[in-house]
Amino acid sequence: MKKLTQKEEEILSLFWEKGPMFVKELKEFYTDKKLHYNTLSTMVRALEEKGFVSHEQFGNTHRYFAAVSKEEYSKGTLGNVVKKYFNNSYKSVVSLLVEEENLSVEDLKKLIAEIEQNKNQKS
Known about the structure:
The chain is mostly helical and about 120 residues long. It has two domains: about 5-65, Arc Repressor Mutant, subunit A (Orthogonal Bundle), CATH 1.10.10; about 85-123. About 65% of the residues lie in helices and about 10% in strands. The chain contains six helices and two strands, in the order αααββααα. The chain has helices at about 5-20, 25-30, 35-50, 70-85, 90-100, 105-120, and strands spanning about 55-60, 60-65. Strands 1-2 form a two-stranded antiparallel sheet. Helix 2 packs across helix 3 (about 35-50). The relative contact order is 0.11. The mean pLDDT is about 90. It comes from Draconibacterium aestuarii.
């Protein structure tokens, strides 16, 4: 999955939250009020080129919408982090979380139970 800038992620989040919008509507919700309409429009088209946003045409204008769900994006982003920083080892990620006490032993047991339950449901 292609990497997004922070501003691109903010725009994509607005599409997830608000649904399909014209750039004019998007500008109303976007936090950086100083951002020019044309710049925002260019950023949305860049998201479309990367495959994260799509559009439907209404005359001479386009209404844009998220082409990737938040869940799909989260999975892809997590996969990239694990690949880049943890040598593609989810075990290393979990070990770090346990070591840093961000994940308690009790949470880890619950996670293992959920994994086993999901595995049994697939069988």
